[in-house]
């Protein structure tokens, strides 16, 4: 891709999103490295298009700080890149806290893990665990030893730290999250006075809830909504593609939809995300995993970058890497590093 085409295209993306990749303020300057980096810092591209963009963002900042940083394809399966970390083939990889914890405890991840495929294709939903397995939200709280309480972000992050393989550690998580949420159109929110899922409970039987193909088989789905919020929708309507689900919501064929919070469709259609005060849905914060022997100066750079990455940034990364004419993760990262439309 020529620089002229990339620049023009990225400005168009910024106009559509109404925000730059790094928010209103430019990213902070990289942490200074006072001594030359003796060893390279290799970052795994990770399981999704979003983590691939994040890998290039981390690498870019590390190079600015004086490290010999590069992005490595260590496979998209968690077993692959965690194995690469343990072997010393890579030093850093970004992931999502809930799915990482479930993987480490031998459970299936949540849905398509909000993949942002670089070829613009629609991710294929992964099979749901059998109902007798207890479902993911129930399993998560049980695995974390929380009893009847549901896991929040801090619980999951602490759990990840407890079960990481020897020689690995977590760095500071980003504010960004990409978890399942129930969304409605603004007219529906106004009509029923909806701001969170507790508001939804009393009117739930009047609404149809659109979902992906996995939702009904997961405990945060019908089971979780009923137990946490006494929400039993009039109908559950599954869709194989997010585009069809969003169209149905906008045409009022369903009145609520379960989407990932970093989906560009939420911003594009001014959808209202209903808060989940009882933590029905599995938390999914962006968290980098690193080798124990990663230099502290390199860890400081990664932490400084992570602190600047919010959910809006994930939305932009998803939009850019899953468009009809998608940008590469490296191009999307370069745009973010240059301050988006703040420049």
TrEMBL record:
Pfam families: OpuAC (PF04069). It comes from the Bacteria. Residues 111-135 are annotated as: Disordered. GO terms for cellular component: ATP-binding cassette (ABC) transporter complex. Residues 40-338 form the ABC-type glycine betaine transport system substrate-binding domain. InterPro entries: ABC_Gly_betaine_transp_sub-bd (IPR007210). One of its GO terms (molecular function) is transmembrane transporter activity. Residues 111-134 have a biased composition (Low complexity). This is ABC-type glycine betaine transport system substrate-binding domain-containing protein.
